[in-house]
Amino acid sequence: MKKRSLMLVLIAFIGIFAISCDGDDNDGETLAPLKGKWKLSMVGTVVDGSEQLTVAPENENGCEKDYMDLRVSNVVVFGDYTTPILSSECELATTEGTYVRSHNNLTTTIGGTAKTQDIVNLSLNELKLRDSAGNITVYTR
User: Which Pfam families match (predicted)?
Assistant: First the structure.
């Protein structure tokens, strides 16, 4: 009987300990993966405390959506589709750099110029970023 009581106390202690450790290490970070190819979806800004988003005008009609590809090696590739004058075919131009995630910030560096954005939302299907000027960029998978 003593062994059983001791075992129940031990199980209760482990349970309480596990509940009390709520993973504060992430401080608001999500467990959704950041790495991968994200297609540009919407852009906007904050006006009077409210987000004003529109369909990204950077995306050319008839072409695939522009994208940001965050690779495992911390390389970022931005893809920009355009339709040249006198052509009906979409052309892809890519720009490569590096990226670093620090808590809820994403810093991309292209050609020596760094840009840091807050990760406002990160789910399996959406990545919403906001820079210090309040400009918002929404990507989807």
Answer: Lipocalin_4
Q: Kindly tell me the burial class for residue 115, based on how many C-beta atoms sit within 10 Å of its own C-beta (0-12, 13-18, 19 or more).
A: middle
Question: What is the tens place of the pLDDT at every residue in 32-82?
Answer: 889 999 999 999 998 888 899 999 999 988 899 999 999 999 999 999 999
| Sequence-ordered strand ranges (E) for the chain | 36-47, 50-55, 67-70, 75-82, 91-102, 105-110, 113-122, 126-130, 136-140
Containing structural domain, residue 64: 35-140
- What's 130's domain CATH number? 2.40.128.280
Distance separating alpha carbons of residues 99 and 17, to the nearest angstrom: 37
Give the pLDDT of residue 21.
44
11, part of any domain: no
